[in-house]
Amino acid sequence: MRRVTFLVLGLMLALIMPALACAIPQIGGRAEPTPLPPPTPMGDTLILTIPLYRIGLEPGGAVPGAQLRYMGQNGGMYEVTIGGLAASKRSGDSFSWQGIVAPGVVGNYNLRLTATLLGRLVAAGQVTLNVFNPMPVVINTAPTTGDALYYNNIAVQYLIPAGRAIPGTTLIFEGVVEPGGPENLAQEMAHLSGGSGYPYFAFGDSVGWMGRLRDNVTIRYSLRVIALEENGLRVAGSAELWVENE
User: Fold this and answer.
1) Considering just the CA atoms, what is the radius of gyration of the chain in Å?
2) Taking the model in full, what pTM does it have?
3) What are phi and psi of 244, to 5 degrees?
4) Per residue in 65-91, pLDDT tens?
5) Cα–Cα distance between 58 and 80 in angstroms, integer?
6) Which element (helix H / strand E) includes 16?
7) Distance, CA of 37 to CA of 107 (rounded, Å)
8) CB within 8 A of 2, min separation 6: which ones?
């Protein structure tokens, strides 16, 4: 019986010891940190949203970039065309369209007719722009052509894991740098590579970037660091977009 007991204890120790060895922390050294993966390429589509797009239309006028046209007022009705088809609308009715705005750009105009103001028909709502196959390249000046479609008040908020780029830019979040190191930082800061100039940004700092997403699409970001989190860098702000119909 005693021999059987010893055999059972031996088997139990054989099973338990490897688990204990894994649980005991390493003594006298420091494990090498896991290297970060290379920056992940941005997806095939950059989605940009204008939460409240608003425009006033004169009779015969069209919503820029969309096949939405106001023809005139007929009694208490608004005569419009949507995708080339005639429709009669009242105040509060939908005025929406989705289609190609320019090469590589699709727009979704989810608007409603609100009222007439000083003879103009006001349409308002959300606009979403999808830029396909963006390849960000830094430029220093915005387009000067008067033919470009211009969108502003684009709301932006991103959470960027370490090793990834801020979508639509060349700025790569390398990680959080603690104070007191060789960088001579006085506080915790985010390290952003891929730009020019000082690469460290503290909580509340502004982050600006301008560049081309495609040959006919230019974007300018006005962002701020709103959080340095364990799972990444969070930035928020606005963007402007210029789209040329090549």
Assistant:
1) 28
2) 0.80
3) -100, 135
4) 999 999 999 988 999 999 999 999 999
5) 11
6) helix 2-23
7) 34
8) none
